[in-house]
Design brief:
375 residues; alpha/beta; Enolase-like, domain 1; TIM Barrel; eight-stranded parallel beta sheet; 15 strands; globular; Mandelate_racemase_N_dom
Length: 375
Amino acid sequence: MNKNIDFPGLKISDIKFYRFDIPLREEFKLAAMSLNVAHNVLVKIETNVGIIGWGEGAPFHALVGETQDIALAAGKEFKPYLLGRNPLAIDAIVRFMDKHLPHNTTLKSAIDMALYDVASKAAEMPLYLFLGGEKREIETDMTIGLCEPEEAGEKALSIKEMGFNIIKVKLGLDDAADYARLKYISDAVGKDVILRIDANQGWDRMRAIRNLKAYDEFNIEFCEQPCPVNDINGTKLVSSQSTIPIMADESLFSPTNAISLITNNVAPYFNIKFSKSGGIKNAIKIASIADAGAIPSMVGCMSETRLGLTAAAHFGLSNPIIQFFDLDSHLEHSIDPIEGGISIENGMITLPDSPGIGAEPDESFIQSCEVNVLC
């Protein structure tokens, strides 16, 4: 703990919101939307003692109802409240944000992340230790978006050759193409590679039951969000009928959602993402509920750079109920504007031990974003 800091007197002296646009190598498609550029938001929190915190959010409009412009507008709403506040009062700040703007989870997650970066830097601890976690192995999958089945097979083989043992496959638009995509992938990589599938709400309950039964021949670990979020009973029915476990994703935003999903026995697995929970504070609450309900969980991502992914990996170490990791979005990016942060080799994530998140944007890249500071 840094004894030179007056912790009660610590204040937020300034906060900046940036358009953080990251081009992708190629168009990334899922059932609900597609993108060629990750239109992320970047938050910089400055303090009166010189400690700087960084946070990132990746708004997927079809999943969280938020675009980059909406997120930046929310930042303008929050800035007057944040200035002069003690950044260590994370609980009070998060409660205010949730009450002031009940939605806007992506922007709130970026602010929350920056606050935790400040707090763990002030404590001179890597974030995972600050959250009470400890080091353990982290193995991530790598994702294949919607594409032609033959192309999916080629991509899967390339991913296997990169050393990954787990491949996540996007499905949900065309049943015949989905099956063919999995067949090409399975034939290319063999049974030793674990497959995870994600329909992104693309099926109704009967299509989901039919499709998942057809996929029994493949080595599938679980299926994320087969049915629309407004059909919780449908997801529950599919879960009861399928031999492939179901993971709640878009139906899990809040701690309240977590309680409801467990109480109603909807799905045996959870996918926790900062862009849905509104950040680390609420993600910790969701993980604790999952832990109490014996629901193994995954920490996932949208299209964050290694800044957001590093924070997510730190969080993933905070509770052993988080058993699965889907932290690969930066591998789709054509540039890497982050210094420090996680590295991946053969699918295994190495996390920095420097104070805070241990990752920050390259200063020269930030200068190119400067004209897009909102306030």
